[in-house]
Design brief:
Blueprint (H helix, E strand, L loop, with lengths): L6 H19 L3 H5 L9 H22 L7 H23 L3 H19 L11 H18 L3 H10 L4 H25 L6 H26 L2 H29 L1
Helix pairs in contact: 1-9, 3-8, 3-9, 4-6, 4-8, 5-7, 5-10, 6-7, 6-8
Length: 251
């Protein structure tokens, strides 16, 4: 069988596209890449890979800093709530069996993508108390299943964050949740040796995709950026719906 027809090649394409989307929008890597977890031997091996890859992309975003701004007044309460959620989410996910883990990831992808499809979030979504609750939930989802980012993105958009401030806030938030999620899994002995095989196979396409997305983002106007972000998430939601139907049908 040709490598081009293998699940490994297919997931390389998925992680390339996911990283490119993250480079353009500042979010969405794990949400898109999680759609390809079925191509990997195990979701419990794949989730730590997604957390690690997302953390590396976050570091690259923050090191670049072009078009990135961090509003610490807005971010501090969200970060505290997100870290509390992450501390709870990781240990809960480690005890799940493979079938349940895949199903929960599918449902989380559907929910996050569906929320992100709201092009103009309602004003009530910008409530600060709601933002803290959403941050707690997203922290738990990221730590447990490496997905959920668009939920906090929707709150930031409703609060009036522009592209630079949204990218900066999400980079810090995701990075902190990724670190805590990986640390929790490490302490519980839930990071399997197979993760390093995934790093060797998919590290390069992930970095190449991120580089392509970052270059594209620099050339987009604010209006084009929003159209690309919402259009991409519409595709994710449609794919996630099909995946959920297939997963539930097999169950």
């Amino acid at each position: 069988m040709s490598f081009l027809a293998t699940p490994a090649f297919a997931f390389a394409g998925v992680t390339f596209l996911a990283a490119a989307f993250r480079g353009v929008t500042g979010f969405g890597y794990s949400l898109i890449a999680a759609l390809g977890l079925g191509l990997l031997p195990s979701a419990q091996v794949g989730i730590p890979f997604l957390l690690g890859a997302d953390l590396v992309l976050t570091a690259l975003l923050l090191l670049d800093r072009r078009g990135i701004a961090v509003d610490w007044w807005v971010l501090r309460p969200l970060l505290a709530a997100g870290l509390a959620g992450a501390a709870c989410g990781g240990p809960l996910a480690v005890g799940l069996d493979e079938t349940t883990a895949r199903l929960v990831v599918t449902v989380a992808v559907l929910g996050a993508a569906g929320v992100a499809l709201v092009r103009r979030p309602p004003a009530w979504l910008a409530d600060r108390r709601l933002g803290i609750a959403v941050a707690f939930l997203v922290g738990g989802l990221i730590s447990a299943f490496a997905v959920g980012g668009p939920l906090i993105s929707a709150w930031l958009l409703a609060s009036g964050a522009d592209r630079g401030r949204l990218k900066g806030a999400l980079a810090v938030f995701f990075g902190a949740a990724d670190i805590l999620g990986l640390a929790g899994r490490g302490l519980l002995g839930a990071i399997e040796p197979g993760v390093w095989d995934l790093v060797l196979l998919y590290g390069m396409p992930t970095l190449l995709g991120f580089g392509a997305g970052t270059r594209l983002s620099a050339r987009l106007s604010a209006a084009a950026w929003r159209r690309l972000a919402s259009g991409g998430l519409a595709g994710i939601a449609a794919t996630g719906l099909v995946q959920a139907i297939v997963t539930l049908g097999r169950g």
